[in-house]
Each structure stands twice: as C-alpha cells, then as structure tokens.
Write a structure and sequence with these properties.
globular; alpha/beta; four-stranded mixed sheet; 343 residues; 8 helices; 23% helix; L-arginine/glycine Amidinotransferase, Chain A; single chain
Length: 343
C-alpha cells in the first residue's frame, strides 16, 4: 500500500494562476486544413488572457509575424522559446498539484511517448514538462507511468476519472497492473478513489479514449458525460455504458454521482475520417468556460445553455472548433492549467 500522499490535485474550477499553451506549428496535425488553425488559436488565447495570465510555448520556430502582431498586444501573455513537437500540451505538460504542507506547487511529469508511439518524434514534447516547471520555479516530480493529462479528470476532493484503454496497454505501460497504476495516482495526485470509465470512446479519437472527451466534473459530485444525439451513431453504445458506470459509482466521499448527459453533435467526417467532436472538451478558467462548438446549432446551443446553468458563476464562451477538431482534439486538449498557490 502506498504511503499517504502529501499533495492534492485541485479541481479545474479552483483559482488558477495561469494557463499554459503551445503554438500549433505542426501543419501535419491538421493535414490539408491548417489554414484557419492559427487564427482559431489566437482567438482561444485571447479569450483566456482576458481573465488570467497565459504562458505560450513558441515551439521550434518563431511564431508567424501576423499572429505575433496580435499576441504582442495582449498584456497577459508571455512567450517562452521552448521546443515542442505538437500543440497538445494537456498531454505532455506537467499536471500541477499542491503540496499540502506548504501549499506550494509541484509539477508531475508523466512519461510521454505520443499516445503509444503513434506520432514520432516526440522528444521535445516529452521534455517540455520539466522546462515548464523550471519557468514556474516549482519542484518537478517524475513518474514512471506513461500517462497523458487528457486521460485524467478530478473533482479536487480525491476522486479521479480515467479509463483502461489509455493506460493498461502494451504501447504505454506493458506489465503494469491496475493496482500499480492506482498507486501512482494516489501517490502523485492525492487520489483516494479512482473510477475506471471503460464503456467506450469516440470514433476517430487517436488518444484511445481520453476521459476529457467523455466525462468531466463541473462541481463535486456532479459530472457531465458525453452521450450520442443520434441512436444510429457508432459511439452510442459505448457512451451509454460510460454513463451507466458513472451512475453506479460514488465519489471519494461516498456520495453517488449526479450524472448529466451532454449530447455530441451528429457524426461528421473530414476527408473520409470521423472527427471526435465532444462538448466535454471545454476548458475552465477563472470566471469563464471556453466551450468548443462545431457549427451544429441544436447541440451547440444546448451545450452552451447546459454549462451556463451548471456553472452559473462563470461566463460560457462558445468558440468555433469546426476546423480545430480535425487535429483530433479541442481546447481542453490544447491547454494546461496552473493552480494558484493559496495559503
């Protein structure tokens, strides 16, 4: 049995010091559809910078002058010349936790191999967590577990959501057991209860089913879960199973979870490939929620209204992700929050 954790992983709705982003320089992430990505990303960055500082990794080359002209006018943005392979900083950036004894930040650096070796090279991404911790000036703790940040979701009270398809695989953690992985989460994140949401993922999702596309806490004991808005959707059965698992679960404080469906848009294909559109990939920042939308008015409007009702203390900002999702991720995937240190 692991020793009692000395850290706590704050929920995303708790006060934040900053958001970390990485410039989307890799055109191959959006093959044939990159043209609109820089503009979408700048809109995303601008929305966050209205409420809190943003740290932007520039990647291996300079940010294009057209984008930099806008970014440089934003007072809340700092650009750091840190090399990256891709924009998905949620997965390779540090998971920031708070040390209980002194409320200081600690960055957890998971081992990163590009979602089981799918997109190589990934050495710059794998090194970014340590570089970010160096900029922040916080301790960096390295785990032996291959894990991406998008595979983890917390309520800030010791409950953690994840699934087996992202962790118990030969391409990530060969030979590891579920118990061994849970011990890592208990030690490094302060998790007390791990719920394995193993119903099914989204067609087209190359992460093998990250939880931040499937189920998200909006407050302690309350979780939204992706469901299909079309009964003939190939995702429908797996998403229903996820909801059933969550409804049968209790959190770390032994409370039954309130599970709220968050319907996905109608299935869509780009260049013959299904795109994994899900409103669960929203980002919570101070005072706001940035919600990816997909030019599907009925479900876009429903998701905006629902999250506004569930998080009334925040302004929900719908942001077009119609082109961005061709990279197989949206705004939560492309960001990493840094909690505020509170005594």
């Amino acid at each position: 049995m692991p020793a009692e954790s000395i850290v706590r992983w704050p929920a995303e709705w708790e006060p934040q010091a900053a958001t970390w982003l990485a410039w989307p320089h890799n055109c191959e992430t959006w093959p044939g559809h990159y043209e609109n990505i820089p503009n979408t990303f700048v809109q995303f960055l601008r929305a966050i910078s209205q409420v809190q500082p943003v740290h932007l990794l520039s990647g291996p080359t300079e940010i294009p002058p057209s984008a930099m002209a806008t970014i440089s006018k934003l007072s809340n943005v700092a650009v750091h010349h840190v090399r990256t392979n891709d924009t998905w900083i949620r997965d390779y950036g540090p998971t920031f936790v708070v040390r209980i004894a002194d409320s200081k930040l600690v960055g957890i650096r998971w081992r990163f191999n590009a979602w089981g070796g799918k997109y190589l090279p990934c050495d710059d991404d794998a090194a970014a967590a340590a570089a970010i911790c160096g900029i922040v000036g916080c301790d960096c703790v390295s785990s032996e577990l291959h894990c991406e940040g998008g595979a983890l979701e917390t309520d800030g009270c010791g409950t953690l959501l994840t699934n087996s398809s992202c962790l118990l695989t030969d391409t990530r953690n060969p030979g590891w057991t579920r118990t061994h992985i849970e011990d890592q989460f208990k030690q490094n994140l302060g998790a007390k209860k791990i719920i394995w949401v193993d119903g099914g993922g989204l067609d087209g999702d190359d992460t093998d089913g990250h939880i931040d596309q499937l189920a998200r806490f909006v407050s302690p004991g309350r979780v939204v879960v992706a469901t299909s808005s079309h009964s003939n959707d190939s995702n429908a059965r797996g998403l229903r199973a996820n909801a059933q698992i969550l409804r049968a679960s209790t959190d770390a404080n032994h409370r039954p979870l309130e599970v709220i469906p968050l319907p996905t848009p109608a299935p869509r294909w780009v260049d013959g490939k299904r795109v994994p559109e899900s409103y669960c990939n929203f980002l919570i920042a101070n005072e706001i929620v940035i919600l990816p939308t997909f030019r599907s008015p009925p479900t876009d409007q429903y998701a905006t209204k629902l999250l506004s009702e569930l998080m009334p203390d925040r302004t929900v900002i719908p942001l077009d992700a119609y082109d961005f999702i061709w990279g197989l991720g949206a705004f939560h995937c492309a960001s990493q929050q840094q909690p505020r240190e509170i005594d």
